[in-house]
Amino acid sequence: MAYQNSTVSLEQMLLQFMSEQDPMLSMLQWLCNQMMEAELSAKIKAQKSERTDQRTGYRSGYRVRRFDTRMGTMYLFVPKLRKGGYVPFFVTEKSRSETALIQVIQEAYVQGVSTRKIRKLASSLGIESISRGQVSQITRELNEQVEAFRNRLLQKTYPVLWVDALYEKIRDGHRVVNMAVQVVIGIDKDGKRNILAVQPMHEESESTYKDLFEHLKSRGLQDVWLVVSDAHKGLAKAIKESFVGCSWQRCKVHFMRNILARIPSREKETFASRLKQIWLQPDYQTATTYAETLMEEYEDRYPSAIQILETGLEDSLQFYHFEQMDHRNISSTNILERLNREIRRRTNVVGIFPNQDSYIRLVTSYLMEYHEDWSTGRSYINPKILQEIQEQRKAA
């Protein structure tokens, strides 16, 4: 809709709105767009295309954001800034009842609740104006939005990927099964975190992981420098075969747990304090030297633990070959562990999901919120560092 011409009279604008399918929603959407333009102009101290010495920033196009209200769902064109993020004040300050409304609908829909019962739930929150048609529209658009997000086109290069699995109880016919759902986070060239995949798996195997990576590649992904994951054999093999020339970083946290499982309880704390020093060394050579000393000291006392350490050590030290990056960011899957905890905090409310689709729907909806916040927030890895590494890789 184009209602940008300030010379259009109020009467003409009202006539334009009245010709829309939902006049009130159209008016609200126009008002939101005007408020965003005004707010951003005030933020950067300059109107669109205005030249002024007081300007503090520059516009950089628009991004589409879904905005749910009791009048209905609309898609806003939110202005973007070249540097820094911008979130409209009416989005961040949306009232409790509006937020509760969408959460009630999503949670209830996931559990297969009828639209009639959803309306009763909304009413219990003091929201009386929701109709059956609005419920159906929101749930239908939620499905479409989830599918669009999971199948969107990707950039060619994501320097770092983190891969980890969630396990949830999901009803499959008359049985309740534990299903693995793989979540993939990637860093783009701007150093921003992206949710790249939310993929259910009936089993963890080399073939299912290859399917996951092939799906990413079919959406545009070509170049990956480092993948961080645990040491599932099928996953590790799929990474090496799917991304030729890519390094694999075995998560140091999972690796330490595997080793410590072979240490007697009374000795765990002491040995763990020595063990973790391997990955705190300033460089690769010092880390390997320290590890060799530790293995020589303990190989007679804890042979099975030391054997695990010796076998997996090299894969757990790959982050040292990306010395420009902060090692704390790329040496483990902690970034995904934190995200998984947040997801489980929400899914625990549901318990057993009625089917796979309901679980994917809810989890993806939450992950889309994180993805959007990350896209407007600070970089996780400095983009200048990524540019330096890319130039070194081209020169090699």
Topology, pairings included?
Blueprint: H1 10-18, H2 23-44, E1 59-69, E2 72-81, H3 89-92, H4 96-110, H5 115-124, H6 132-150, E3 160-172, E4 175-187, E5 193-201, H7 206-218, E6 226-229, H8 233-242, E7 247-250, H9 252-260, H10 265-275, H11 284-298, H12 303-316, H13 327-330, H14 334-347, H15 356-376, H16 383-395
Parallel strand pairs: 3-6, 6-7
Antiparallel strand pairs: 1-2, 3-4, 4-5
Helix pairs in contact: 4-5, 4-15, 6-15, 7-8, 9-12, 11-12
Q: How would you explain this protein's 3D organization?
A:
The chain has 396 residues and is α/β, with parallel strands linked by helices. The chain folds into two domains: 10-150, no CATH class; 160-395, no CATH class. It contains 16 helices and seven strands. The protein has helices at 10-18, 23-44, 89-92, 96-110, 115-124, 132-150, 206-218, 233-242, 252-260, 265-275, 284-298, 303-316, 327-330, 334-347, 356-376, 383-395, and strands spanning 59-69, 72-81, 160-172, 175-187, 193-201, 226-229, 247-250. The chain has a five-stranded mixed sheet, with helices on both faces. It has a two-stranded antiparallel ribbon with strand order 1-2. Strand 1 (59-69) and strand 2 (72-81) form a beta hairpin. Helix 4 (96-110) runs antiparallel to helix 5 (115-124) and helix 9 (252-260) packs antiparallel against helix 12. The longest helix has 22 residues, at 23-44. It is globular and about 90 Å long. It starts with 9 loop residues before the first helix and ends with a helix. Residues 1-7 and 93-100 have low confidence and may be disordered.
